């Protein structure tokens, strides 16, 4: 691979970064706060690749008179040099093609099904002072799934978290495994590479295919988020409606 081809690949790579960062696509891979890092990285790659292309074109133009009469020796040397070049730079095409042609979706059902059953306690950590803020006012306040799991694990008996006897609204995608239906959401710290699932077991949910996004009004079944069931709380579904997948598929 010659330098011109390498530089063109860098242009494509920088363009791919700018493309995903200028739309909601980047939310499939990283947190919202990383948008400007992606835009900056893509712009820098584009500038450096463009500068390298212009520099190589100028050097080639300046060296053109000296190439006359190079003959078979130059041709043989160039041919041998091409055969000795590594092919690894072509791997840069893989992320470029994935972004421009496929645009991989956010992680979902497969990631949950491949993970061990149950929720990670570190993903549902207790508050530093041992207390939660009271639930928002309203008949069925909306909670992030990870917040609901944290309250159910550490305060499910009805303390300051206030889940006992309260209806809440949760949004996530349905996953069928081990004979039960779960409402799931993936939580990321930085990017999709560190995603971990948060799940809630559904009782009385409508029979919908895995991957269907639901907005449910539900009530915690007390004492269900224990070590024995992998810190997975169970809820009784009071109402449910399918919703479109949100642009921000992950929780943070």
Overview of this protein structure:
The chain is an alpha+beta fold and 252 residues long. The protein folds into 2 domains: 3-102, no CATH class; 109-242, OB fold (Dihydrolipoamide Acetyltransferase, E2P) (Beta Barrel), CATH 2.40.50. 37% of the residues lie in helices and 17% in strands. The protein is built from 6 helices and 5 strands, in the order ααααααβββββ. Strands 1-2-3-5-4 form a 5-stranded mixed barrel. Mean pLDDT is 81; it is low at 70-83.
Compact description:
With 252 residues, this protein is of the alpha+beta class.
Give the CA-based shape: elongated
* Uncertain spans: 70-83
Per CATH, what is the topology of the largest domain?
Answer: OB fold (Dihydrolipoamide Acetyltransferase, E2P)
Structural class: alpha+beta
How does the major sheet shape up?
5 strands, mixed, barrel
Task: Count the beta strands.
Answer: 5
Number of helices: 6
CATH class of the largest domain, named: Mainly Beta
The name of the CATH architecture of the largest domain is Beta Barrel
Element order: H for helix, E for strand: HHHHHHEEEEE
What would you report as the Rg, rounded to the nearest angstrom? Answer: 27 Å
Percent helix range? 25-40%
Number of domain modules? 2
Strand content: 15-25%
- Strand sequence of the main sheet, in spatial order? 1-2-3-5-4
Query: What is the residue-mean pLDDT, rounded to a whole number?
Result: 81
- Termini Cα gap: 41 Å
